[in-house]
Specification:
The chain has 950 residues and is of the alpha+beta class. It is built from 25 helices and 25 strands. It is elongated.
C-alpha cells in the first residue's frame, strides 16, 4: 500500500489539496518505471542547480579540457548498477557550428556527433559497456523518457559492444517534432579498400539518405564537407643510420665516407653535451591541415580533392610531441645536472658526521645506512681519465673567467666555471655518483706534484688579485698558482723577478705623472735608475739647471754639496714635485707588490685587531713590513728625502698646504707643484705629527734599499706549503659546502651558455634561478658547521627548481634548432608551454583542475609553410618499406597519420504534415544528416547522426 505522510491537524485546505496532488502511488509501478523516476529526479536536480552550482558542489574537470566538467550519480536497476554522467562546459560554444569542429579540447562524443552537453549512462562493470542489445535499447529508452518528462533537450548515449570499438548508440529529443538518433562504430582491421579513399566515404554517406541502391557515382547529391589531415614527423631517434646518395660525399681528407654513417646527437653542440647527452624533449611534430566547409556534388570531386596537395589547405597548425621527461610526474627519472646535484647534497648531509676525508663514506668505516651510491669507488681508469682532463689536456692560454658568465653568477660564492676547482666539481658530479673521497685525495696529490715539480697549475691565473668573492678553495689555488709562478721566475731569473725573487712595480699615486719611463733593464737590477742633475742655487733660473737623464744601474748625484749618496731603484720623476730639503726632483721608486691574502688571512687579521683593541695602531703594525719596504725604496730613489717627502708622495691627504687654497683642493693638488714655488709650504696632518707616530718610527728604522735588494714580502715557499696543508687537512663538510656552491654555479653557468634565440621568458627564468640559488646557498658561506636539516631540505627543493629550469632550457634549445628559419613559431610554442608549465613549478602533484598533457596548437602562417613542409623529409628506403601508402594528400611522400572528415546534409523544412502549420513563407535550413569519419587505412571510425520527424 502506498505510504501517506501524516498531515498536521492545523493544515489548511490548500495545504491538504497540494499534498494530495503530489501523491505518488508506487504500489502498481514496475521496477523499470521506478528506474525512470530515479533518472528523472537526478536530471531535474542537475537542471535546477545549473552550471555555477554544479561547479561549486564539486564537479570534476575532464582531463582533456579545462572548460569541460562532469557530475555523476549511481543508479540500480534489475540487480545491476549503472553510472550516469552529465558532461557540460563553462561555455556553450564547445560544439558544432562555432568554428571549433577540430578543437583538441573536445570530448570524443562532442567531436563525433557535434553536441555540446550530454549524458552518458553505462554499467559499472569491468568493460564499462552494454554487451546485450535489448538491454542497451531499454536503458536508452529509460533515459529518453526521463529527459522528455523533464522537458530537457540533452542528448543521451549508451556505450555498446566492446570497449575497443568505441561504439555508442544515442538519442536526443529536439522538441515536439524532431528527434536525433546517434550511432557510432569502429573497424579496427581489414578496412574495405573502397573506404580508404574519399570517394568511397562520400558514397557511404550518400547511401544513408538515398532512396535506392543505384550507382551513386552517377548521381549528384549536394553535401557539405570539412576535412582535417594530421601529419606526423618521424621520430628523431627512430633511425640513426642514414643512407647517403651513391658516389657522393667524401671526408675532408679525400677518402669517401662509408655507405652508412651515424647521425650526431641532437645536442652535440650544446654546452651540456660535454657532461651528458640529453634526450630530445621534442620527439616530433603534428601538422594539422584543415579544409574549411565546401559543397561537394559528386564522387568525382572527392577524387580530385584526394589528389590535392596539403599546401592548398585553408589552415595549417602545428603541435609538438613532447617527451615524458618534461612532465611533472617524471621528476627524478632524468639524468642531468639536477639529478647529480641531488646526489652531491646527499653527500653533504652525510659529511656532517665525518671528521676526515679519508674516512668519508669509507667502506671500512661506513655504517649500513651510509652505504649509498656515494660509497661506490670509481675504477682507476676513470680517475686517470678525469685527472688527465683536469691537469694535462688544458690549453696553454688561461681562460677568461668572465666570458659568458651571467651577471648574477658572482653572487654565488663558488669557483668560476673554467677554474680548476670549478671543473673539479663538474667532474665530481659524474665520478662514481659523486664519490669525492677517492677523487679529492687524487686531486690534491696532483696539485702537490705540480708544486714539487715546479709545473704551472692549470686553469688558474698566475698573477692578478685574489678574488675574495669566490670560495676559499679557489682562493687558495689562486694563491698557490702565484707562488708557483714566482718560484719558477726565481729559478729561471725571468724578466719579472730579480735574484731575490722580488716582484716590482712603479707606484703612481693620483694626480701624479712619472715623466721618464724605463725602457730598458739592467742585468743586475730589475729597476733601472735615472740621474737628475741638481740645480745650483734657488735664485737661478730652474729651467736652465735641469740636466738630461743618463741611464745607469747606480747613479751618483751631480752636486756633491747637496748629497754624496747614490740614487737607486728610481722609476722616474714624479711630475714637478720637489724635495723639501734639497732642490731635487722627487723620484717614484719601484716597490714590491703588496702580499696577497686569502679570505681566511683577512679574517685572522681582523680577529687580531679586535683582540688587541687599538685597531688603528695595530693595523699600522700589521702593515709595517709593507711600509718599511716602501720607505726603504723611497729612500734609495731619493737619498736627500725626509719623512715629510715620503708622506707627500705616499699619503697626500696627510700633507696640509699653508697657502690660501681650500683644504680639499690642496690635498688633491699637493703633488702637482711648480718648480718655481720652492720649497713647498705646508705641514703634516695631526695624526702624522703626533708624538710617537709609528710611521715616523718605521721611517727612522728603514734602510735605504731599492726593492730589488729587499727581502720579499711574500715568501712563495712558505705560503705555498700553507695552501697544500689546507687542502690536505680539509674537513669533509668544509669541502662539500664549497663543492655544492661551486657545482650549482658551474652547472648554471654551463646551461646559461645555451643558444635559444630571443626568448625573453627564458632569460627571465634564468635570472630567477640565479637569485634563488644565491639566497638558498647562503647557508653554505659561513665556513662553519652550521648546516642543519632544514637547510638540507631547502637545498633539495632548490634541486627541484633547477630540474624544471634545466628541462625548459633543453626544450628552448631544441625548438630553436628546429625553427631556425621560423623563429616566431619557436617562440610561440615555447611561450605556450611555459604558461602551461609555470603553475606546476615546484609542485609534486597535479590537481584535477590542471591539464596533464600539453597539446596547444600554433597556426602556421603562409610564409612559414615551406619551412614546416621541409621538416617532413622524404622517407628513406629503410623507413618506407614499413608504410602502406593507401590514402592520398601526400606531403613529401608522407601520407596522413590521421584523416578526419565531417559530412553534413541540410534540408529546408517548410510547412508539411509533420511540421504542422507554420507561418506563410517560413523556411528553415536544418541539419538532417551528419557523419563523422576518423581513422587511417588500417583503422576506421564512423559516427552517424540522423534527424527525423517522429
Amino acid at each position: 500500500m502506498a505510504s501517506i505522510s501524516k498531515i498536521p491537524s492545523s493544515a489548511t485546505d490548500e495545504d491538504l489539496e497540494e499534498e494530495i496532488e503530489h501523491f505518488d502511488d508506487f504500489t502498481l509501478a514496475s521496477s523499470w518505471e521506478r528506474f525512470i523516476s530515479e533518472i528523472e529526479a537526478v536530471c531535474r536536480q542537475w537542471l535546477a542547480d545549473g552550471t555555477k552550482n554544479l561547479l561549486k558542489n564539486g564537479a570534476i574537470s575532464v582531463n582533456i579540457s579545462e572548460e569541460l566538467y562532469k557530475v555523476k550519480t549511481d543508479l540500480k536497476y534489475a540487480m545491476k548498477s549503472y553510472c550516469m554522467e552529465y558532461y557540460f562546459g563553462t561555455h556553450n560554444d564547445v560544439g558544432r557550428g562555432k568554428g571549433n569542429d577540430w578543437s583538441c579540447a573536445l570530448h570524443d562524443l562532442q567531436l563525433s556527433f557535434g553536441v555540446n552537453e550530454f549524458l552518458v549512462i553505462a554499467p559499472q562493470s569491468a568493460s564499462g559497456v552494454v554487451l546485450d542489445g535489448p538491454e542497451a535499447s531499454k536503458l536508452l529508452s529509460a533515459v529518453a523518457i526521463s529527459l522528455s518528462n523533464c522537458s530537457c533537450l540533452w542528448p543521451a548515449f549508451v556505450p555498446v559492444h566492446v570497449p575497443s570499438r568505441k561504439a555508442y548508440i544515442g538519442i536526443q529529443n529536439m522538441g515536439t517534432l524532431y528527434t536525433r538518433r546517434f550511432e557510432a562504430d569502429r573497424i579496427g582491421s581489414q578496412v574495405p579498400l573502397k573506404l580508404m579513399h574519399l570517394e568511397g566515404l562520400y558514397e557511404l554517406f550518400v547511401s544513408k539518405f538515398a532512396f535506392s541502391n543505384m550507382d551513386l557515382s552517377m548521381h549528384l547529391f549536394q553535401v557539405n564537407l570539412k576535412m582535417k589531415l594530421t601529419y606526423r614527423t618521424l621520430p628523431y631517434d627512430e633511425d640513426f643510420d642514414v643512407q647517403e646518395p651513391e658516389g657522393g660525399i667524401t671526408e675532408p681528407g679525400g677518402s669517401p665516407k662509408s655507405k652508412y654513417h651515424n647521425r650526431k646527437p641532437w645536442d652535440d653542440d650544446c654546452p651540456w653535451s660535454e657532461w651528458y647527452s640529453a634526450e630530445d624533449p621534442v620527439k616530433g611534430f603534428e601538422l594539422l591541415t584543415v579544409w574549411s566547409e565546401k559543397a561537394i556534388g559528386s564522387s568525382l570531386e572527392m577524387a580530385e580533392l584526394e589528389n590535392a596537395s596539403p599546401l592548398e589547405a585553408e589552415k595549417w597548425s602545428i603541435s609538438p610531441c613532447l617527451s615524458e621527461i618534461l612532465s611533472a610526474d617524471s621528476d627524478g627519472k632524468r639524468i642531468g645536472f639536477a639529478s647529480q646535484l641531488q646526489l652531491l647534497i646527499d653527500a653533504l648531509h652525510m659529511s656532517l658526521e665525518t671528521q676526515f676525508v679519508e674516512d668519508f663514506v669509507s667502506v671500512e668505516h661506513s655504517r649500513p645506512e651510509n652505504l649509498k651510491s656515494t660509497a661506490v669507488i670509481p675504477p682507476p681508469t676513470v680517475l686517470d681519465r678525469v685527472l688527465k682532463d683536469l691537469f694535462y689536456e688544458v690549453e696553454a692560454a688561461q681562460p677568461d673567467y668572465a666570458e659568458g658568465d651571467h651577471k648574477n653568477s658572482r653572487t654565488i660564492k663558488g669557483a668560476p666555471l673554467e677554474s680548476l676547482f670549478g671543473q673539479f666539481c663538474l667532474h665530481a658530479l659524474w665520478v662514481g655518483d659523486c664519490n669525492i673521497r677517492a677523487f679529492w685525495i687524487e686531486f690534491v696529490r696532483e696539485v702537490r706534484w705540480c708544486w714539487e715539480e715546479s709545473q704551472p697549475l692549470p686553469r688558474m691565473p698566475a698573477n692578478g688579485v685574489i678574488d675574495l668573492s669566490t670560495c676559499l678553495i679557489n682562493q687558495k689555488l689562486h694563491m698557490l698558482a702565484i707562488c708557483m709562478d714566482r718560484k719558477h721566475q726565481f729559478n729561471q731569473k725571468g724578466p719579472k723577478a730579480d735574484e731575490n725573487g722580488v716582484f716590482l712595480s712603479a707606484r703612481i699615486k693620483a694626480d701624479t705623472e712619472v715623466q721618464s719611463v724605463i725602457s730598458s733593464q739592467d742585468g743586475d737590477a730589475q729597476a733601472s735608475c735615472w740621474e737628475c742633475d741638481s740645480l745650483s742655487t734657488p735664485d737661478q733660473d730652474p729651467a736652465s739647471h735641469i740636466s738630461s737623464f743618463e741611464h745607469s744601474g747606480a747613479v751618483k748625484l751631480g752636486d756633491p754639496e747637496h748629497s754624496a749618496c747614490i740614487r737607486r731603484g728610481s722609476a722616474g720623476v714624479v711630475g714637478s714635485m720637489m724635495l723639501l730639503k734639497s732642490y731635487q726632483n722627487m723620484h717614484a721608486p719601484f716597490t714590491q707588490d703588496s702580499p696577497l691574502m686569502t679570505e681566511d688571512m683577512h679574517e685572522e687579521r681582523l680577529q687580531a685587531i679586535e683582540a688587541l683593541g687599538d685597531s688603528s695602531r695595530f693595523s699600522a703594525q700589521l702593515e709595517k713590513d709593507i711600509l718599511s719596504s716602501d720607505m726603504s725604496a723611497f729612500k734609495a730613489a731619493n737619498p736627500d728625502a725626509v719623512f715629510e717627502d715620503f708622506i707627500r708622495w705616499h699619503s697626500p691627504r696627510d700633507w696640509e698646504n699653508d697657502d690660501n687654497m681650500e683644504k680639499g683642493v690642496s690635498q688633491i693638488n699637493a703633488v702637482v707643484e711648480s718648480i718655481y714655488d720652492w720649497p713647498p709650504r705646508g705641514k703634516l696632518s695631526e695624526r702624522m705629527s703626533e708624538h710617537g707616530n709609528l710611521w715616523r718610527k718605521i721611517w727612522n728604522e728603514a734602510p735605504p734599499l731599492p726593492a730589488s735588494e729587499q727581502k720579499p714580502l711574500l715568501d712563495p715557499n712558505q705560503e705555498g706549503e700553507k695552501v697544500l696543508h689546507y687542502l690536505e687537512t680539509l674537513r669533509p663538510y668544509q669541502l662539500l659546502e664549497q663543492m655544492v656552491s661551486t657545482a650549482f654555479r658551474a652547472t648554471a653557468d654551463t646551461l646559461n651558455k645555451t643558444s635559444f634565440g630571443g626568448l625573453k621568458q627564458m632569460t627571465t627564468r634564468i635570472e630567477q634561478l640565479y637569485l634563488t640559488m644565491s639566497t638558498t646557498l647562503r647557508c653554505l658561506q659561513t665556513n662553519s658547521l652550521s648546516v642543519d636539516a632544514e637547510d638540507i631540505k631547502d637545498l633539495k627543493r632548490l634541486c627541484t627548481t633547477f630540474a624544471h629550469v634545466e628541462n625548459v632550457i633543453t626544450l628552448a634549445a631544441s625548438l630553436h634548432r628546429k625553427f631556425m628559419q621560423a623563429p616566431r613559431l619557436s617562440e610561440s610554442i615555447f611561450n605556450d608551454y611555459d604558461n602551461f608549465h609555470v603553475p606546476k613549478l615546484g609542485t609534486f602533484s597535479i590537481g584535477h583542475d590542471v591539464k596533464k598533457v600539453f597539446n596547444n596548437e600554433q597556426e602556421v602562417r603562409q610564409g612559414e609553410r615551406e619551412v614546416i613542409a621541409s621538416m617532413f623529409t622524404p622517407p628513406t628506403a629503410n623507413q618506407s618499406w614499413r608504410k602502406v601508402l593507401s590514402m592520398g594528400n601526400l606531403l613529401n611522400g608522407h601520407e596522413p597519420a590521421s584523416r578526419e572528415i565531417i559530412f553534413t546534409k541540410r534540408d529546408h523544412l517548410c510547412e508539411n504534415y509533420y511540421v504542422g502549420h507554420a507561418p506563410k513563407g517560413y523556411q528553415q535550413e536544418f541539419e538532417t544528416y551528419r557523419m563523422y569519419v576518423c581513422g587511417t587505412s588500417n583503422d576506421l571510425g564512423v559516427a552517424l547522426a540522423v534527424t527525423s520527424c517522429d
